[in-house]
Amino acid sequence: MDLYLPIANLSVNALVIVALGLGVGLLSGMFGVGGGFLTTPLLIFYGIPPTVAAASAASQVTGASVSGVFAHLRRKGVDLQMGGVLVAGGVLGSMVGAWLFKILQAMGQIDVVIGVLYVLLLGSIGGLMFRESIGAIRVSRGAAVAKARKRRHHPLVAALPFRWRFYASGLYISPLAPLLLGFFTGILTMLLGVGGGFILVPAMLYILGMGTQTVVGTSLFQTLFTTAVATMVHATTTKAVDIVLAILLLLGSVIGAQLGARFAARARPEYLRLLLAVIVLTVAARMLLGLAWRPDEIYSVTVA
């Protein structure tokens, strides 16, 4: 079932795109990640231009985040004050990211930059996840348990001025820390089309010192608004959002997330994390191969 994508300017098999969204949604439901950091590379592998893949993935992440935010709001798992500061930083970062996107696009380097950033991010995150999951498996088999780390924000955060009380998170820190964190995530959202949760959640835990009861909900809250802003900025500046592509992805991801959640309830979490780490490292290796591999023929002419 071929379908023409007006912005990407090519025809794709709609069932393949839905299946891709289904796979990403399945990972989201199984592992508790947004899946946006895998959507863009997979679209690129399928042949979608990197600029369109990144911009459309951002809009897909926006839609996928809505239900999660409402679920966490109902159980009071969102620090709205912290989320507001993160969103403010994310909006500013999106504006700077759009400026960088247009500059790199004008230079003809945006595709390379997207690829390099994904290799670095997925390689580092996949490596950390792999190490953590191997440690968890060893503990489950009888190895000594490491001493639990006391929850405390980073010393650099403690040194920042103008402290506020974030009551829902139980923190007394400077708002400059979450503002800068949101700013960095906003830039990544514009350039890569990711929600940023795979960076935001660990940073909120280990840098800001937030408790686990509010981290996921607050991260989704920031992701929802930052990706929405990024989508609007892309639509009005870079003109790279393909709404047909985003709808197909969202359709598959909604179904996949439900199936993944059911499967995750029956599997051991340490083995699920190991599987996700292997998937992330495999995608990073494939991205690196695409950047480094030199084809035998750079140009080819086809005679009809």
From TrEMBL:
Organism superkingdom: Bacteria
A GO CC term assigned to this protein in UniProt:
plasma membrane
The compartments listed are: Cell membrane; Membrane
Which family is it part of?
Belongs to the 4-toluene sulfonate uptake permease (TSUP) (TC 2.A.102) family.
The protein, known as: Probable membrane transporter protein
Traced from the root, the source organism's taxonomic lineage reads: Bacteria, Pseudomonadati, Pseudomonadota, Alphaproteobacteria, Sphingomonadales
What the entry lists under Pfam families is as follows:
TauE (PF01925)
Q: What membrane topology does this protein have? A: Multi-pass membrane protein
Species of origin reads Sphingomonas pokkalii
Coiled-coil residues: none
Q: Which residues cross the membrane?
A: 12-33, 53-73, 85-104, 110-130, 179-208, 215-237, 243-264, 271-293
Tell me which PANTHER family the record gives. MEMBRANE TRANSPORTER PROTEIN MJ0441-RELATED, MEMBRANE TRANSPORTER PROTEIN YTNM-RELATED
